[in-house]
Design goal:
There is one protein chain. The chain is an alpha/beta fold. About 50% of the residues lie in helices and about 15% in strands. It is built from 16 helices and 16 strands. Helix 2 (about 85-95) links the parallel strand 5 (about 70-75) and strand 6 (about 100-105). It is elongated, with a radius of gyration of 42 Å.
């Protein structure tokens, strides 16, 4: 109760705040009928202070319980004989954020001390001299009523604006609709800007190179998404709340857009995975789903696999897909896979050229990484894309075997030569071929940590040129001759019988293919 005494610790004052357009300033209050005859006698710099509520001071102790924004009315009866206490009220009230002090000059306090008025002027704290015949309760009632009426009207206008803004979003509105409505309702130029300051949507004459008067961030979690900005000569509470609500709705739009993008990404990935995993169970349904994404499956395509080996800074799926769109066009079906991506590429003038352009684009987007691109054969019927994808994976595995696990290369399945034939055989048949021709050599290498199989492979690759083979193996020619004698002793001479020679060469390639499959 006002004027009651207590020894409890008073709460810390909170800053005064008022709803939009509900501010009743000290200067405006002086125009009310109940304050006719009142004069602002000191602290004119604070005439714009907003009045949150009005109260009557019976004893000075009440000041400790003020929260800010109060118009405090008093007869000064409690301090009528203590000028020092009256003067000391001014800095304490200013410190606590009161709006103003109204003192009734009359029977208890004939005049206001000059020191009190000087202090009020220095602090910009308004002091209002009230006529002796005025009733404090009349002032109290009219001030509080005016504030409440303004708050009610302001809240009604604010809610109406919030409803219109929310309705615009519910009806599928975008940033443009939001800022257009904000600018129309507030009369201020408004814009939605990206994180880098680029204007995404604007309404009204947005000034170039001028810092906005008010901004509110658009953020989803800890990820910034830009800001809502307005340019205004004044930034009242009504404008602040309107901009804050637009920022909230803009954040909702960002969340919706990201959810839709993620849903589309998953839908696209499921569809593409189905295309390359097995023959379609329902051709017409698959074609319909692809057409909904803007893909024409009737065009010839080849499955292409990209693998990025980590070696530099990290990369993201979006970076890879962006590189693919740059190299092959935005309509190329593509989706991210662990460590890379898979695409369905139209051959254009040359599938080889398209794959080379793709590898260059990915390498530029992921500097410091090794980039491998492998392609299956072009298929006219999308029902056979799963075969092209299997071929691309085989070409990638073979490329890793031939180029090393960290190598960069472009390999087409059609260039795999005899490996295309061997790739049709199951692992069991390949192992039988390898064991029949190279089994003793493999066992010898395992027991003695030697490299007879590798030496034989290089020797055959160099068209049985011992000098070239020894140079590539970085060994002396006589060392190679010794190894060839060991090979002949263990597995027979690969050069003397044409059938034996063919079987040995096929076994060498089969051994490399099995190694690639194992990886």
């Amino acid at each position: 109760m006002a004027g009651s005494r207590t020894t409890a610790t008073p709460p810390a004052p909170a800053p005064a705040s008022a709803p939009p357009a509900a501010r009743l300033t000290v200067a405006q209050a002086l125009e009310l009928p109940a304050l006719a005859g009142a004069r602002l006698v000191a602290g004119r710099d604070g005439a714009r202070h907003a009045i949150r509520v009005a109260n009557i001071m019976e004893v000075p102790d009440i000041v400790r319980w003020m929260r800010g924004g109060e118009l405090l009315l008093t007869t000064a009866y409690a301090v009528r004989h203590d000028e020092r206490a009256l003067i000391a009220l001014v800095p304490e009230m200013a410190r606590r954020g009161l709006a103003a002090l109204g003192v009734k000059v009359g029977p208890y306090l004939p005049s206001l001390p000059k020191a009190m008025l000087r202090s009020a002027d220095e602090l910009g704290f308004p002091i209002v001299e009230l006529p002796g015949e005025v009733m404090l309760n009349d002032i109290l009632s009219e001030v509080i009523g005016t504030v409440l009426n303004r708050q009610a009207l302001s809240l009604e206008r604010t809610q109406a604006l919030r409803d219109r803004l929310s309705q615009a979003v519910l009806l599928g509105g975008s940033y443009h609709e939001l800022v257009a409505l904000l600018a129309r309702e507030t009369g201020c130029p408004a814009a939605v800007r990206a994180v880098d300051g680029a204007v995404l949507a604007a309404a009204g004459p947005v000034p170039e190179g001028v810092t906005p008067s008010l901004t509110r961030p658009i953020a989803v979690g800890d990820r910034p998404g830009g800001e809502v900005a307005v340019w205004s000569a004044t930034c009242g509470d009504d404008l602040v709340l309107a901009v804050e609500h637009v920022a909230t709705l803009a954040t909702m739009l960002v969340v919706q857009e990201r959810a839709l993008a993620e849903r589309e990404r998953r839908y696209r990935t499921l569809l593409l995975t189905a295309l390359v995993s097995h023959p379609p169970r329902d051709r017409s349904e698959l074609a319909r789903r692809a057409a909904a994404l803007g893909w024409d499956l009737e065009r010839p395509r080849a499955a292409v696999v990209v693998e990025v080996t980590r070696g530099g800074a990290g990369f993201t799926e979006e970076r890879l897909l962006s590189a693919a769109r740059t190299a092959l066009g935005a309509q190329t079906p593509a989706w991210g896979t662990p460590g890379g991506m898979t695409l369905l590429v139209e051959p254009g003038e040359s599938l080889r050229r398209s794959c080379a352009a793709l590898r260059r684009a990915v390498a530029a987007a992921c500097p410091g990484h090794a980039v491998a691109v492998a392609a299956g054969t072009v298929r006219d019927d999308f029902a056979e894309l799963h075969r092209s994808h299997g071929e691309a994976l085989s070409a990638l595995s073979l490329g890793r075997e031939l180029e090393g696990p960290e190598g960069s290369f472009t390999k087409l399945y059609e260039d795999c030569g005899v490996y295309r034939l061997l790739d049709q055989l199951p692992d069991g048949e390949l192992r039988a071929l390898v064991d029949g021709a190279l089994g003793p050599l493999i066992a010898h290498d395992a027991r003695h940590d030697s490299s007879l199989v590798h030496s034989l492979t290089v020797y055959l690759q160099r068209d049985r040129n011992g000098v070239d083979a020894a140079e590539e193996l970085h060994i002396h020619y006589n060392t190679l001759r010794y190894r060839l004698k060991q090979i002949e002793k263990l597995a027979g001479a690969p050069d003397k019988d044409p059938m034996r020679r063919l079987q040995t060469e096929l076994a060498v390639h089969a051994h490399r293919l099995l190694s690639a499959r194992a990886r």
